[in-house]
Amino acid sequence: MRFHDAARTAILIFAMILLSNAQAQTETGLTAQQLSDNIFVLFGEGGNVGVSTGPDGTFIIDDQYVGSGDAIRAAIATFSDQPIRYVINTHWHYDHNGSNEHFGKAGSLIIAHDNMRERMASGGYLSAVDRNIPPASVEALPVITFGDTMTLHLNGDAVYLLHVSSSHTDGDSVI
Ligand SMILES: [Zn+2]
Hints:
It is built from five helices and twelve strands. The chain is an alpha/beta fold. The protein has one domain: Ribonuclease Z/Hydroxyacylglutathione hydrolase-like (Metallo-beta-lactamase, Chain A), CATH 3.60.15.10.
């Protein structure tokens, strides 16, 4: 019983975080923090956005909500004029991949775990917010997927993508 109570509390807290983020969705403006010469993080609505930019272009990790694409572009434009070539999704929740369609239509290649793509393609019930998520459009779906690991060699870095099973969802990745 104690475990179930703890699990329920964790889910409730998670739901509250999601809902509070959703209510802040109309606010504009992201803040960017530089972590190294070519790596940044954007804070704002939804999940944080990791950014690598350099001679190979720009890639981002997650892209927040539907409608966040222009704000993400504007924030990145303050420190880079490189095109956004890749979008990596950590998992299928809509506060992390909501702008996939925006970036996919613009030509960015979207990368995620095999299960993440399946979840997006089929949609499903998200118990944390008691909400049915509809299937995503074709343009929003990852076009490159992987099973256990993948490595990108970009901007002088080896970027490791690692699937974490039995995690937040069945398609979570650590990058
Ligand atoms: Zn999530």
